[in-house]
Design brief:
eleven-stranded antiparallel sheet, about 45% strand, disordered N terminus, about 190 residues, globular
Length: about 190
């Protein structure tokens, strides 16, 4: 019996490096689903603020883009698509920012699409990417290559649950040191 336990322990010990998750695998499982919905919590920290600003709501990510529906502290909707950003305030007033010929908007939209779609080639085109397999989770640290984006965002750090194959959090560090942390939960993957 003791030999069997030792044999099983050795199998797990030597099999662990073989079962390591790669960046290619993470990108593949983040893109294999047509859509992801769930809840988010957002926490903004800024040097000018004494305490973090917190909000929460629901999100949807699909090939059309990203939709954030904030419920607390105020209701609002923000849709980020490849050609426009639509914001709807608590009063129902809609504000649309069109991409048009705006190079900065185009770069930001492409960058955000790469982050949330898990498209490895787009990620590596837009960012210097560091990847670490931490067992049940993985960490991606991305620094923008584009100088214009670097003036606004210094890094985006993503944590992925490699067992559930889901994004757990995204930390955006702005060039001035302020941060925005998104934490995701209750994720579903509808096929519609």
């Amino acid at each position: 019996m003791l030999k069997r336990i030792i044999a099983i322990a050795l199998i797990y010990l030597f099999a662990a490096p073989v079962m390591a998750t790669t960046l290619d695998e993470v990108c593949a499982f983040l893109t294999e689903r047509k859509a992801t919905t769930g809840d988010f919590a957002q926490e903004k920290t800024a040097k000018a603020l004494k305490r973090p600003l917190k909000s929460s709501g629901t999100f949807r990510i699909d090939e059309a883009g990203i939709e954030w529906r904030t419920v607390k502290p105020f209701k609002s909707v923000m849709k980020v698509e490849k050609t426009k950003i639509t914001q709807i305030g608590a009063d129902g007033k809609e504000n649309i920012i069109e991409a048009g010929s705006n190079q900065v908007f185009e770069s930001v939209a492409k960058m955000m699409s790469a982050v949330f779609s898990g498209d490895k080639s787009a990620l590596e085109e837009a960012f210097f990417v560091d990847f670490a397999d931490e067992g049940e989770s993985c960490a991606l640290s991305m620094k923008p290559k584009d100088k214009t984006i670097q003036s606004a965002i210094s890094s985006i750090d993503m944590r992925v649950d490699c067992v559930k194959k889901e994004m757990r959090s995204v930390l955006v560090t702005q060039a001035n040191g302020d941060t925005i942390l998104y934490t995701f939960s209750n994720q579903l993957h509808p096929s519609f």
